[in-house]
Structures are given as structure tokens and as C-alpha cells.
Amino acid sequence: MLPSSLEQDTERKADLLKNVPLFAGLDAVEIQALAEVAMVRHVPSDAIILLAEEEGDTLFVIVGGRVKVTVMSEDGREVILSILKDGDIFGEMSLLDGKPRSASVISTAETELILLRRPDFLSRLSRFPEMASKMLATLAERLRRTNRQVESLALLDVYGRIAGTLLQLADDQGENSDQGLTIAERPIHQEIANMAGTTRETVSRVLNDLERRGYLARDGRSIIIQGPDRLRDDFFHLGTPVIK
Ligand code: CMP
Fold this sequence. Notes:
This protein has helices spanning 5-18, 28-37, 92-97, 118-127, 129-155, 158-173, 189-196, 200-212, 228-235, and strands spanning 39-43, 48-50, 58-64, 66-72, 78-85, 89-90, 104-107, 111-117, 175-177, 180-183, 216-219, 222-225. By secondary structure, the chain is an alpha+beta fold. It has 2 domains: 4-151, Jelly Rolls (Sandwich), CATH 2.60.120.10; 156-235, Arc Repressor Mutant, subunit A. A 4-stranded antiparallel beta sheet has the order 1-8-3-6. It has a 4-stranded antiparallel beta sheet with strand order 2-7-4-5. Helix 6 (158-173) packs antiparallel against helix 9 and helix 7 (189-196) packs across helix 8.
């Protein structure tokens, strides 16, 4: 007998869940149990998935696509805290502390998500120490990044902030080639501006200048950083000097 569409659906969800780093320590039976309660959702680009300040009891896993985590000022200015992609999770903060959503999450490409409800997620988290420590590592990494971003916004000039944003993007999604470190599908200038705390016009001007001075090259939506060390040394001076 052919499996019913419900069974096919659960099988597909189990396949997707298996490949999520957070669930890598779960055995097949657990993955299957999680697949039975998980929901899949497709969203187009520019969809608001989570709204800051709303109550929420769902954890989201990105199966494919890309989202931005943002906070918005009253006059509509947006600060991008992070860009998340395949395998990343979001929505864990409200799940863990029961408070409203700390930020909004908006898709920047067509995105496929797996949704898990609070009790389904928390029961696994308490039973699987490996999952809990992965979760803590994710939170620690986010805090490190956010610290770097705060430091950068407070201490660097606009060249430093834009250089830092490019180096962070390269760290997340860059690929090495003979020409340098390529960020394929870079965010649009407005998004780079919202990550670096500046305006779209300034991003265009600084990128043109950095290109003219041989720090980077552009090819459609790609940015190729020619010598990331040079970009870092010349513009991105962060961190307290170590006293020896
Ligand atoms: P939650 O507060 O439930 O909803 C918004 C989500 O955005 C939050 O959980 C985290 O998953 C994510 N988030 C909030 N702040 C950051 C940040 N600084 N870096 C990356 N992700 C974040």
C-alpha cells in the first residue's frame, strides 16, 4: 500500500529535521516523534514571521531560505541584528523565558520553516543534554556577535562599521576563490546600512570608494573582498589591547 500523504509528510519532516544541527544528537525514534508534531510553513520574501513585543510559543527552524532579525525605532528606522539562514533557529528566547518576542523576524528570500511548539521543544531540551548544550553555544555565539556589533557601532567610524559588516557577512557565507573572499547574494545596500548604522547613500559611497582603492570588487549581487586581512587591518580596529 502506498503511504498516505500524512505519512509522506511526516517522512519529509523527519528528513528535514535530521539535517538540522540542533537535532543532530537525537535518535531516529525521537526525530520521528518530533516530525509528527512539527509543522512546515513556506513564506515568500518580505513576510513578517515574528513581530517584536508579541506573545509567542513557537520555535522556528530554517530549512531553506534567509531571514533578518530586526528592531525598529518609532520613526521607522530599522536596525538589523542578524541575518539567519539554513539550519539556524529563531524564536527560542520567548520559549525559554516566557516573555514577548525580543525582535521582529522578516524573510528576505522565499523561506521554508519548521515550527515546533513550546512543550514539544522544551521536553526534548530537558531530556537531551547534547541539544541543550548546542542551544547554549548558539546563544553564546549570538551574544558575542551582538557585543561586536555594539562595540562597532559605539567605537568605529562609518568605514569601520561597513568593513565590519562585510567581514561578518564573509564569515557567515563567504567562499574563498583565487580572486578573494566572495559574498554571493549580498544584502541590498539598505540592509547593509541597517546593519552598520548608516544610510543607503553612505553605503553606496563607501563601497564605491573601497572598490576604487582595490579592497573589493563587485559582480552583480556578489562582493569579492580582495584581501580580508587588509580590509580588517586598515578599517576594523576592535577589541581591547591585551596587556602582556
Ligand atoms: P524571540 O525573542 O522569541 O523572537 C525574536 C527572535 O529573534 C529571538 O527569539 C531570537 O531567536 C532572535 N534574536 C533576537 N536577538 C537576536 C540577536 N541579537 N542575534 C540573533 N538573533 C536574535
